[in-house]
Amino acid sequence: MAGERILVVDDGRENRDFVVDYILRPNGYRAITARDGVEGLEKALSLRPDLILLDLQMPRMTGIQVLHALARENANIPVILMTFHGSEEIAIEVFRLGVKDYVKKPYTVDEMLAAIERSLSETRLRKEKEALTERLLVSNRELQRRVKELNVLYKMGKSVTSHLEVDQLAVRVVEAATYVTGAEQGSLILAEDEDRLMCRATKRSTDLHARAVCVPVNDRLVEEVIANRQPVVLTPDDLAQARAANEAVPMTLLYTPLLMADRVLGVLGVDSVSGNAKIFNEHDGALLSALADYAAIAVENAHNYVRLEAVKEREKQEIRQTFERYVAPSVVDRVLDRPEALRLGGIRQEVTVLFADLRGYTHYSERADPEALVELLNEYFRMATDVIMAREGTLDKFLGDAVMAVFNAPEPQEDHFYRAVDAALALRNAVSTWNARRGGEGLTFGIGVNQGEAVVGNIGTSRAMNYTAIGDAVNLAKRLQEQAAPGQILVAESIVTSLGDLIKTRPLGLMQVKGRQQPVMVYELHDLA
């Protein structure tokens, strides 16, 4: 689905022209351009594009400054950042500011197109959901208006519309139709898939109650009602004509359509067969039409309910697929039972954070083919993911050649510090075993583990948010990882205090780490006791 408006903010004319002429316009997008951050911010706030392609380094106003300004204005516009230079710190900052993707220059047409499609997918899904919600609201407003207008049928209509399952609904409609008209027989016929007419409920003169059925219908009068969108009443004169033509018909008959906007959902009919059969009058027709209106709304609501259930199930599967990339399936099941856990916002709580960074990656990447490098990285990260999820940790993010995991969130874990330490040791052993099978050559992880308070939750905006942990406890775990040698696991004193004799460690003494004025006590983790 193209046609979205995309704002390109870049002080380089060649880059703006390349994006507009070779990426946006050939693929059906509508382009807006800005030559610097100030002009870009003005156009973003006044024109409200569907997506912004934002350069990082610009005169007058940098990309970071534009992002901060958009956040202050609650603009909620997805952003793709473009830059020649980048770092893990910049990536973390811009993603927390709502950036959807991060593209390094120079990029190919396919790379930028893929980033644009990924960034717009959430916006498109939201618009589809809003359209569906609006249709449901219109249906509900129509229901409320009908209830006020038809006070005579209020109780009966309320009973009919209380059912969201078509079989039960059809039975109640037929029961109500025969009751309000005094008819001996009744039926509800619905137009279903491929324009098939199916009788979904019937009551014969010999039946005490209506019953659900599913029988194809081939009836000239029913087809006439649907075609003309008007009721059909068979009068005594019509009866005489039918008998003269040797047609088998009931004594008297009344059919009325179920209308919803410009569609005919089906036909509600009543008839009588006995010798003293009632002749239906205009009042009977009005009562049956009123009930048919209730029935139409109820049928539409039943269909909407089925569609909503399908949408909810699809959304649930999308949530499952998304979260299962970060946390264990058992944790996903618990989160889905508490959907409020997915709301935007964070809470302060104790967590244990694990950072693991590949050592030797830069040197290896200089010698390896790109395809082989990607395959190798995927294998190392697969090992990290398996180890973390096996202990029900939350895979927070991948940062270049590093991985961050959080324990005790989103679900509480009394032994979160033990799980994190066990994961660190298991990851080191898994990598060692895998390298040995490959001949002893390969990469390894430097690992840091710390325990403490952090703000944990969905951080960002309603359109772009990440489940993550933020705080000094997280920063210290990362600094320990940065100090760790290949294959070494460094843990903070908080871990040793919590686990005591359960682990084997070697004190390394006080260590000065980046971002802290006072040195911290650091231990090397060897094994579980």
Describe this protein's structure.
The structure is a single chain. This protein is an alpha+beta fold and 529 residues long. It has three domains: 5-127, 3-Layer(aba) Sandwich (Rossmann fold); 150-308, 2-Layer Sandwich (Beta-Lactamase); 332-528, Alpha-Beta Plaits, CATH 3.30.70. The chain has 16 helices and 19 strands. It has helices at 13-24, 37-47, 63-72, 88-96, 109-149, 154-161, 166-181, 220-228, 236-244, 282-323, 329-337, 361-367, 370-390, 416-437, 472-483, 493-499; strands at residues 5-9, 30-34, 51-55, 79-83, 99-104, 185-191, 197-203, 211-216, 232-234, 252-260, 263-272, 345-359, 394-399, 402-407, 444-460, 465-470, 489-492, 503-511, 520-528. Strands 12, 13, 14, 15, 16, 17, 18 and 19 form an eight-stranded mixed beta sheet that branches. A hairpin with a 2-residue loop joins strand 10 and strand 11. Helix 1 packs across helix 5 (109-149), helix 7 runs antiparallel to helix 10 (282-323) and helix 10 packs antiparallel against helix 11.
